[in-house]
Write a structure and sequence with these properties.
Strand order of the largest sheet: 1-2-3-4-5-6-7-8
Helix content: 40-55%
Structural class: alpha/beta
Number of helices: 8
Strand content: 15-25%
Shape: globular
Largest sheet: 8 strands, parallel, barrel
Number of strands: 8
Length: 201
């Protein structure tokens, strides 16, 4: 089975001043294909500030950097695309606004029906599992089913995965978040996971 590409999710409410250095260390620990700047509970100004610094660091490391649910901000800051969690209408609007020049991914998918509805649009990936650390019992099963059935790439989020438990279940992308940011040394935690996956930089 092919080694999954890595997709990194920033921690909710990351501090724009202190986080970029930690982010850079993690991105240097393995080769990531994509970086999602999670919004958490930040207001517009704080999120835009964090996103701008994350875009600078992420794109410098060769990542596609995605903004959460804000196509206009993604375009203004020079991001690579958006990750949409607000449902089919918002996803359709993002596709109309950004494709084909930018990436549009679909998240907040809790069933096969949700995923197939999203997949009917011109999207670049379907995302199964949480971006905020909340459990999603069916995510792994959905990702495995999708990867075996459809051509649009699947992303499986495993927020609490570590070097012992990481398993992409056949999905083309593996999304990591809390397991890194809660570790004493996020870059070292990432190195351990990358070694397990054979995805070292």
């Amino acid at each position: 089975m092919a080694t999954p590409q890595l997709y990194l999710i920033t921690p909710p409410d990351a501090e724009p001043e202190r986080f970029p250095a930690t982010l850079m260390a993690v991105l240097n620990a393995a080769e990531f294909s994509a970086l999602l700047v999670a919004r958490g509970s930040m207001d517009d100004a704080a999120y835009a500030k964090l996103a701008a610094s994350a875009i600078n660091v992420g794109q410098g490391a060769g990542c596609a950097v995605l903004i959460e649910n804000d196509a206009a901000l993604a375009r203004r800051l020079g991001a690579d695309g958006v990750h949409v969690t607000d449902g089919p209408a918002a996803l359709k609007a993002a596709v109309a606004a950004l494709k084909p020049a930018m990436i549009v991914g679909a998240g907040n998918l809790h069933s096969r029906h949700d995923a197939m509805t999203a997949g009917e649009l011109e999207i670049d990936y379907v995302f199964f599992g949480p971006t905020d650390g909340q459990p999603h019992a069916a995510a792994a099963e959905l990702a495995e089913w999708w990867a075996q059935t459809f051509e649009i790439p699947a992303v499986l989020s495993q927020p609490d995965a570590d070097a012992e438990t990481v398993d992409a279940r056949g999905a083309e992308f593996l999304a990591l978040s809390q397991s890194l940011w809660s570790a004493p040394d996020p870059a070292r935690a990432m190195q351990a996971i990358a070694t397990t996956l054979g995805a070292s930089a």
